[in-house]
């Protein structure tokens, strides 16, 4: 009788433990599915990034690396990627430029229907020669404009896009790492931080190209 009691006791403990494991597993599965559904419904359009509400993108007119006047509004009819860089940047800006080149490669033939613009945050050192050299170094030679200008010209664009830009030293600048994705109608659709993945931006641009 004593052995039977012990066996029954052990079986009851094992059964209880198994029930706890099963309940936890079911709860975890339901929670995972709930999160997955929430994520999948976060953007019915398929776009990834901070939704900017399709507000009209502020227009501007600056000069590119070839000395050619460029305005944002002239690219209506195609998606635009707008970012803010400086040519002497030691880290984030070169990385951003490399990512944008990767996006162009990932887009393939669709890259010819997407415009990429970089607005300088360093008016003192970003001249035509520096902008052209930076573009060539990062293999950004088609559907790409590195835009330069005076401090007054550039600061109005920084303010319009809520970009902080301030020289730190003679060789570095502090600025907001910002990537704006603008649709074919000239509306701000997405904001991406400097840590964006090329595949993410490529996917977003394909969605906008299909609209």
Describe this entry's structure for a reader.
By secondary structure, this protein is of the alpha+beta class. It has 2 domains: 42 residues; 160 residues, Glutaredoxin, CATH 3.40.30.10. The chain is 41% helix and 22% strand. The strands form 3 sheets. It has a 6-stranded mixed β-sheet with strand order 1-10-9-4-5-6, with helices on both faces. Strand 5, helix 3 and strand 6 form a beta-alpha-beta unit. Helix 2 crosses helix 5. The longest helix has 39 residues. The chain is globular and about 45 Å long. The N terminus is likely disordered.
Separation of the first and last Cα atoms: 78 Å
Uncertain runs with pLDDT below 50, 5 residues or more? 1-11, 19-42
Number of domains: 2
CATH topology of the largest domain: Glutaredoxin
Residue-averaged pLDDT: 82
Query: Roughly what fraction of the amino acids lie in strands?
Result: 15-25%
Full CATH superfamily name of the largest domain:
Glutaredoxin
Q: Biggest β-sheet: count, sense, barrel?
A: 6 strands, mixed
Q: What is the number of strand segments?
A: 10
Based on CA inertia axes, which overall geometry fits? Answer: globular
Strand order of the largest sheet: 1-10-9-4-5-6
Structure classification? alpha+beta
The CATH architecture of the largest domain: 3-Layer(aba) Sandwich
* Level-1 CATH class name of the largest domain: Alpha Beta
């Amino acid at each position: 009788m004593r052995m039977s009691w012990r066996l029954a006791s052990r079986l009851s403990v094992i059964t209880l433990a198994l029930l706890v494991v099963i309940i936890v597993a079911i709860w975890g599965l339901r929670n995972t599915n709930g999160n997955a559904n929430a994520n999948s419904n976060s953007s019915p359009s398929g776009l990834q990034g901070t939704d900017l509400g399709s507000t009209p993108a502020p227009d501007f007119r600056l000069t590119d690396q070839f000395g050619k006047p460029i305005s944002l509004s002239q690219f209506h009819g195609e998606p635009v990627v707008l970012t803010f860089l400086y040519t002497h940047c030691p880290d984030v800006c070169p990385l951003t430029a490399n990512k944008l080149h990767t996006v162009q490669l990932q887009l393939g033939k669709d890259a010819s229907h997407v415009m990429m613009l970089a607005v300088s945050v360093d008016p003192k050192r970003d001249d035509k020669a520096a902008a052209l050299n930076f573009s060539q170094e990062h293999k950004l030679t088609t559907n790409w404009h590195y835009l330069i200008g005076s401090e007054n010209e550039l600061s109005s664009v920084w303010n319009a896009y809520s970009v902080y830009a301030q020289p730190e030293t003679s060789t570095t600048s502090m600025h907001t790492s910002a990537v704006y994705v603008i649709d074919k109608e000239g509306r701000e659709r997405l904001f991406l931080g400097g840590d964006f993945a090329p595949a993410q931006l490529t996917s977003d641009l394909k969605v906008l190209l299909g609209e």
